[in-house]
């Protein structure tokens, strides 16, 4: 399943990041977005999601949310 299909308010475990861009992968890693980490969908906006990783919230667009496997 991908993060973009997740349910609002549910906690998931990240299983992997399916993106070829190493710079983007590295950026996500610095946010704490990597395999085994918990992620919660806090809010859905028209073209993005607000997610909670560790104790921080981030706004990620839907295309990036499709790359995060949960």
Describe it.
It contains two helices and six strands, in the order E-E-H-E-E-E-H-E. Helix content is 20%, strand content 37%. The protein is of the alpha+beta class and 70 residues long. Strand 3 and strand 4 (48-53) form a beta hairpin. The radius of gyration is 11 Å and the shape is globular.
Helix content: 10-25%
Give, in order, the helices and strands. EEHEEEHE
Number of strands: 6
The N- and C-terminal alpha carbons lie at a distance of 6 Å
Q: What does the overall shape look like?
A: globular
What number is the mean pLDDT?
Answer: 94
- Order of strands across the biggest sheet? 1-3-4-5
Decide which structural class fits the backbone: alpha+beta
Low-confidence stretches: none
**Secondary structure tally, helices:** 2
Radius of gyration: 11 Å
| Major sheet attributes | 4 strands, antiparallel
Beta strand %:
35-45%
Secondary-structure blueprint:
Layout: E1 11-13, E2 16-17, H1 22-31, E3 38-44, E4 48-53, E5 56-61, H2 62-65, E6 68-69
Antiparallel strand pairs: 1-3, 2-6, 3-4, 4-5
